[in-house]
Amino acid sequence: MNKALPPHSIPIPPSSQRRHENRNVYVRCRGHGHAKENPPPTNAHMPGYFCSSPVYPSKGITFVRNDAKSFRFCKSKCHKNFKMKRNPRKLAWTKSFRRAHGKEMTVDSTLTFAQRRNVPVRYNRDLVQTTLKAMGRVSEIRARRERAFYKARMRGNKQRQREEDRKLVMENQHLLPPSERFSKEELEQHEAEAETETDVQKVKDKVAARRKELEAEESELSDVEEELLPKTKTKRKMKMKVGGRGVEAMDVDE
């Protein structure tokens, strides 16, 4: 019969060895077999179903329907609106609303790179290298085009806001102190200047639009003329048939 060893005789591994042994700990997941306790982090993210915001790993809410379709939500706000069956295109804080109302780019060559492909691509080392290089370049081009799109969309905002402010001041003169109120003559003068400015701007816009229409029509006409006109002009001449029995037509290039 083996005798139990005293407590001081049991070898105790050092702390570094204990940490090394406890590093790979496996836990039992319900219905999924064995899995590591701390899986390696990843930078892959999926767009949210409701607002299209990025949902990173271990973040957000995932709802799986009875037909096995999964819905990812970035926060509880999107989840609640989804359960209330609200339309994302009618809520101003969603990406679909912004695209539907012309506030973001919808048609651009840089957006096609992020589309989903159903056919897998065979691994190629050179292809992977060129793809990684192109990813940064495409993001730079997209950011530059988004800035240009935003500037073009906000181009007339300052002028419109200034006109609205002037109109508000003119209509509410009684709220201003007496020293800052305008006289009737000044009010009439400001109104006349505003009307002339708006009329001139309208005329300029009409002229520019008409010029574009004329240029488009001219380009279309030139294309049609090039298609219809033959490349070489031909003449029809008459020549005597072999044997001297009558004449026949003959095409001759100039």
Automatic annotation (TrEMBL):
GO terms for cellular component: nucleolus; preribosome, large subunit precursor. GO terms for molecular function: ATPase activator activity; ATPase binding; structural constituent of ribosome. It holds the Pfam family Ribosomal_L24e. Residues 160-169, 181-203 have a biased composition (Basic and acidic residues). Residues 48-86 form the TRASH domain. Residues 1-22, 153-203, 234-254 are annotated as: Disordered. Belongs to the eukaryotic ribosomal protein eL24 family. This is Ribosome biogenesis protein RLP24. It comes from the Eukaryota. Keywords: Ribosome biogenesis. GO terms for biological process: assembly of large subunit precursor of preribosome. InterPro entries: L24e/L24_sf, Ribosomal_eL24, Ribosomal_eL24-rel_N, TRASH_dom. Coiled coil: none annotated. It comes from Stemphylium lycopersici.
